[in-house]
Each structure stands twice: as structure tokens, then as C-alpha cells.
Design a protein that fits this description.
Its main location: membrane. By secondary structure, the protein is mainly α. The chain is built from 9 helices and 4 strands. The chain is globular, with a radius of gyration of 25 Å. The termini are far apart.
Length: 310
Amino acid sequence: MASPVLHVKDAYYFEVPKSLWPRDYQSFDDVPESMQFLHEAHPEASIEEFNYDLSGKILIPQPFGELKNLYQAESGFCISKLMVVELFIALLVGGVFIWLAKRGATISRPTGRRHNILEAFVSYVRDEIAKPAIGNKDADHFLPYLLTAFFFILACNLIGMIPGLGTVTSSIEVTSGLALVTFVIGLVSGVKHLGPGGYLLNFAPDLGDSILMQPIRLLIFLIEILGVVIKHAVLAIRLFGNMIAGHLVLAGVLSAVVATASTNWWGTAAFFGILGATVLSALEILVAFIQAYVFTMLSALFIGMSIHKH
């Protein structure tokens, strides 16, 4: 369980300190039926080892599926830790902005710290990201999605700093879903603004009427179409890679401390491990804001390129 990979891998449990969620089964007959699959996966383990491994692990109920182990589903639809966190973040972001909308409808200007900081972020996304990338005329139409993406990603990144919860954006499935939404919005909006033919011709430069230039024009068209797919794939991989890399490095630093626990260098390793983890955590907070900004900015640029003739 000390593997750095498992530290960032999605799972079907939440982890807390062992003392807060101890297991003290006297025999395997006392183990609930919903957890028997864990014993079946490792039948050679003693009840003491079973209790030790499961202490601190709060298993997520699975009403719609069955688990093979704590990291793999056997059948059906299984609810993972990141799914629960993702749903919580969606409700949190939705609740915050429903409050902001109601408050903005009743007063003429922002008042209070929460209102002012949220309005500052909204104004920044609108004036510094959406309008320069999409244009003043069309920016407000796409602003709801850009604001949703920015605050959802930012909340996912920051909540991932809380031990035991996990970073939703370190899952390639989540970042791919976000990039796919950006792609679909750009595609649908481009066809709506330019028409199907105009949208496709946007990928083919005007090289004149010469027949000899048409093969080159077709080649450029195919490259541009492929480029759109690649750009959105990279949009997903960039966010995923940056978020998982930081947690892997952090897990590696802390694993080095554990590895020296039985040596005379434990104190020195612990000091530098805690110092390094603190510095990396501060850097992770900065990266959380930067990656939310980068994803939103690139999404705005891709949408702007789709709806404008160039």
C-alpha cells in the first residue's frame, strides 16, 4: 500500500488515519458479506493482517456493482472515490454560484469578501480570457461554460490537496471528458456560425484556382482536421499530466522517509521530507490555479477559432 502509484490511483474507499477507523474482527466469520471479496482475493492472509490492512479504509457502498478488489470493479456500475468527490465539487460550485447569482440580483455592487473575490474571478475570466479569445460580441454566449470549467477544475485541483480525498483532475477520464465538451461546443458553434460548408472550408486555405495547388490545399485541410483532434487531446493530457506529476513527486518524497524508518538516517530524512513536502504542496497550490487558467484559456481560444473565419 506504500506504492506511489496507488497514492494517486482512483479507489473504492476513502482513507483516514488507522486510529480513526480501526478494524477489530475476531475471525473471518465476523467480516461483513460486502467485504468478503477482500478475503477471497488474499485467502492466505491472517485475520490480524486483514484488520491491519483495512484499518483506516472507509469502503464506499456499492449498490449497483461488485468489486474485484479495492481498485478494480468486478461487474456492474461501481462508485469510486473520485466519483464521490467529483459530485461533491459539482454541488459545491453550483451552490456557490446560485448564491452569487441571487446576491447579485438583489444588490447593485459587490459587498463582502466572498462576493468581491468571486466577482473578481468572474470578471477576470470574462475580460482577460473570454473576450480576447472569442471577441466582445460572442464572449458572453460562451462565458457560462468557461466559468464552469475554470471553477470546477480549480476546485478539483485544490480539494485534491486534502489528504485522503484524491485529485479528480489526475484522472485522464475526467480531463478527457472536459476536453470533449470543449470540442463539441466548438464544433456545434462553428457549424452554427459559419454553416457546415463554411466550417469545413475554414480548415482549407485559399491557394487560388490553380489545379496544381488543389492537392496541397487538400493536404493542408487534412492536417488541420487532424490538428483539431490533436489539440483537444493535448488539452486533456496537459491537465492530467500536470496534476498527477505533482502528486507522484510528493508521494515519492514521503515514501523516501518511510524507506529510512528503520535506519539511523530517519530523523534527517523526516526533516527534509517534511520540508520538501511543504514546498511541493505550496507549488501544487500555484499549479492548481495555473492549470485552471490554462485549460480555460485554451478552451476559449479553440472555440474562438471555430466560430471565426480565418
